[in-house]
Design brief:
The structure is a single chain. The chain is of the alpha/beta class. The protein is 41% helix and 25% strand. It has a 5-stranded mixed beta sheet with strand order 1-3-2-4-5, sandwiched between helices. The relative contact order is 0.24.
């Protein structure tokens, strides 16, 4: 499974409308975010059942900020948010974004 990039409000709305989805907010300018990206990629290598989408917080700044307002989770980067029916049920940021944390969150 690969990560889809979110580049429009319609694509973000589709993520929010899905039954379960991991939203990865990423900055290509940040070393910590690069490390988190590697962890998300390692999680994806196991072919998980829950899809993952990447939101570039620099290139898509209005969308990235809008997510915080829409779902009520404070904006951070890097950050992964597990959404179930458009509602945040778990999130992690910075060094808490690990393959194991993602796997546990999806399993619970």
């Amino acid at each position: 499974m690969s990560m889809a990039k979110i580049e429009s409000q319609a694509e973000l709305d589709a993520v929010l409308a899905s039954p379960a989805h991991l939203l990865f907010k990423h900055s290509y300018r940040c070393g910590i975010s690069d490390r988190a990206h590697q962890q998300v990629e390692a999680y994806l290598a196991d072919d998980p059942a829950v899809p993952v989408s990447l939101l570039d917080v620099v290139a898509q700044r209005p969308l990235a900020r809008g997510v915080a307002e829409t779902i009520g989770v404070e904006h951070q980067s890097p950050q992964v948010i597990l959404l179930r029916d458009g509602k945040p049920v778990w999130h992690a940021s910075q060094f808490d974004v690990t393959k194991e944390a993602l796997r546990e969150a999806v399993a619970s």
